[in-house]
């Protein structure tokens, strides 16, 4: 006879890890889930909404929005995934000679001469050699392949560092506010405490060392020991590019306070203004005469951003310097638990750091493709920045770099009250209304953190350039209607 007692399921929302429940990741949160539902409805009935497509401006995913991959990189990966065609005569009519040569060289160093085998847990040694050579060429200072860990994008490097540094909620990680929510999510999942330091919107999202020091003292008063300082340069979601003097101050602070400096540098190729340039924190620290005994540094890079945009290939690296041998062994152990990162991502990481050089057969086409992408991104950033600044109650700092704008919204009191009734943040209320009216997907600033009482949205600059004017038209019309509807 069947029991009438209702069984409690072995897994429920009440008995899963509370750290998972507390974890948030706004760029693929509620707004995006709603957008995907709307997209499904459009596919079923094209007349179901007042727009005919969803315009995803929520995430830095260039190729999903039509950005063409760099031909040289694609050719090398294609040849390595099908090495038998390297020996076929017709290959020479389809692929550039230097792509064939590079693929042949890489094939010789691959385990089993194939892309389907596991590699060393830090990545294929020859590919780490190439990445180190690229770092050295970029910075003008030596780089050691043994310091390189090839990863599935930058995110695994972040998680490894959080696993390494966080032992309890008494371990704090200093993060910029606004921040990329990977950091808050990772800190929550690993049981630590996020210690915020606020970027100054009035000075183009400036990073003030005095603000960081203040937050360190506040954390100490709460029994929290700050273990690391995260710096995102160029900034996400804020788009600022740090100047050299500011970077030097940050390096000195980390040295004085004994902080690990976690430098998120995945947008290093995305600089759009003539008065700023990217300098890695490793280059800055070495130029100050600081070596491994002076500062502990983790530098993160990804193939998902830049002008390359290979998000789905999941490649990147972290370069670790200033860690003692015993700790490095523990980092290696963490990497070995996952065996290795994917091989295509490893290959692309080596190519991104060692693209065609002058004299190579692909150099001219590579340079043209790269410059076309970056110059278009700069134009798109400028158009969107000007559009935001032309809208009532909206101010937007210029996008010096990265792939985003983070405009500030002065929202009418009635809209804030309406958001309270719906139990959501006012900028999330705005973003939901924008999506329902236009199909445009922005991420509420509340998902990144912001000064209390201020409201923002994050917008990518990635939609193709010919779509930007229509996005601007839709956005301006929506915004004016919104302000009229909720006018005080």
UniProtKB/TrEMBL annotation:
Q: Show the Pfam families listed in the entry.
A: Aminotran_1_2
Q: Spell out the subunit comment.
A: Homodimer.
Q: What's this protein's function?
A: Transfer of C3 units between the cytosol of mesophyll and bundle sheath cells to maintain a nitrogen-carbon balance in the C4-dicarboxylic pathway.
| Keywords assigned | Aminotransferase, Pyridoxal phosphate, Transferase
What family is reported?
Belongs to the class-I pyridoxal-phosphate-dependent aminotransferase family. Alanine aminotransferase subfamily.
Q: What is this protein called?
A: Alanine aminotransferase 2
Class of the enzyme per the UniProt entry, highest EC level: transferase
Organism domain of life:
Eukaryota
Task: Give a yes or no for keyword Aminoacyl-tRNA synthetase in this entry.
Answer: no
* Pathway it works in: Amino-acid degradation; L-alanine degradation via transaminase pathway; pyruvate from L-alanine: step 1/1; Photosynthesis; C4 acid pathway
Cofactor(s) required, per the database record: pyridoxal 5'-phosphate
Can the keyword Transferase be found in this entry's annotation? Answer: yes
| Source organism of this protein record | Zostera marina
Question: Tell me, which GO biological process terms does this entry list?
Answer: L-alanine catabolic process
Q: Which residues form the Aminotransferase class I/classII large domain?
A: 110-461
Q: Which GO terms describe its molecular function?
A: L-alanine:2-oxoglutarate aminotransferase activity; pyridoxal phosphate binding
Stated EC number for the protein is 2.6.1.2
């Amino acid at each position: 006879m069947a029991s009438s007692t209702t069984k409690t399921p072995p897994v429920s929302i009440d008995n899963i890890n509370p750290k998972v429940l507390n974890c948030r990741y706004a760029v693929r949160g509620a707004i995006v889930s709603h957008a995907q539902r709307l997209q499904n409805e459009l596919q079923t009935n094209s007349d179901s909404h007042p727009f005919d497509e969803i315009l995803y401006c929520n995430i830095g995913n260039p190729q999903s929005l039509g950005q063409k991959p760099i031909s040289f990189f694609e050719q090398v990966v294609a040849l390595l995934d099908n090495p038998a065609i390297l020996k076929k005569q017709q290959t020479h009519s389809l692929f550039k000679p230097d792509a064939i040569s590079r693929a042949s060289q890489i094939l010789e160093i691959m385990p089993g001469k194939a892309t389907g085998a596991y590699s060393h847990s830090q990545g294929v040694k020859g590919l780490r050699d190439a990445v180190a050579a690229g770092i050295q060429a970029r910075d003008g200072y030596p780089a050691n392949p043994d310091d390189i860990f090839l990863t599935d994008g930058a995110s695994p490097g972040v998680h490894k560092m959080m696993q390494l540094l966080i032992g309890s909620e008494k371990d704090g990680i200093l993060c910029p506010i606004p921040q990329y929510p990977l950091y808050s999510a990772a800190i929550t999942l690993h049981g630590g405490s996020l210690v915020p330091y606020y970027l100054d919107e009035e000075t183009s999202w400036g990073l003030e060392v005095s603000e960081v020091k203040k937050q360190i003292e506040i954390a100490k008063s709460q029994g929290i020991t700050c273990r690391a300082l995260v710096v995102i340069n160029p900034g996400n979601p804020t788009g600022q590019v740090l100047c050299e003097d500011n970077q030097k101050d940050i390096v000195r602070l980390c040295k004085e306070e004994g902080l690990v400096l976690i430098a998120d540098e995945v947008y290093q190729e995305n600089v759009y203004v003539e008065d700023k340039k990217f300098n890695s924190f490793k280059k800055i620290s070495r130029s100050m005469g600081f070596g491994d005994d002076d500062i502990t540094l983790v530098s993160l890079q990804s193939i998902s951003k830049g002008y390359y945009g290979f998000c789905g290939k999941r490649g990147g690296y972290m370069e670790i310097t200033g860690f003692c041998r015993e700790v490095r062994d523990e980092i290696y152990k963490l990497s070995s638990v996952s065996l290795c990162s994917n091989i295509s991502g490893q290959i692309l990481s080596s190519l991104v750091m060692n693209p065609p050089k002058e004299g190579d057969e692909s150099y001219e086409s590579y340079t043209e493709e790269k410059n076309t992408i970056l110059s278009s991104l700069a134009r798109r950033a400028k158009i969107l920045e000007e559009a935001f600044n032309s809208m009532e109650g909206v101010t937007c700092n210029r996008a010096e770099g990265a792939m985003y704008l983070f405009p500030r919204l002065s929202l009418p009191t009635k809209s804030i009250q309406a958001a309270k009734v719906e139990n959501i943040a006012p900028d999330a209320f705005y973003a939901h209304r924008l999506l329902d009216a236009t199909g445009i997907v922005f991420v509420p600033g509340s998902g990144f953190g912001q000064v209390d009482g201020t409201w923002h949205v994050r917008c990518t600059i990635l939609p193709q350039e010919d779509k930007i004017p229509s996005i601007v038209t839709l956005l301006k019309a929506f915004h004016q209607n919104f302000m009229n509807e909720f006018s005080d």
